[in-house]
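Q: Hi! Curious about what Methyltransferase looks like structurally. Here's the sequence.
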Amino acid sequence: MSDVTPTGKTWVAFGPAGAVGSVHSAEGGYTFRLLSDPDYRGIYPTLDIAKSALHAALLPGSPWPEFREH
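A: Let's find out. The predicted structure is below.
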């Protein structure tokens, strides 16, 4: 979704091999993208839901990432 613009805080998601993506506050909620994504993915109403969506977008069986606020 190229019309999503991050507006504030960022949380970087780290897996066993390093960074896998990031969650960003945005107008209307939160958005995320994986490192391989060209654009942000949708708007989610809460931070927890955006983190869950990021995790669901990872390969099946991936562990829950560690989210670090930046």
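A: A fun detail: The chain has one helix and five strands.
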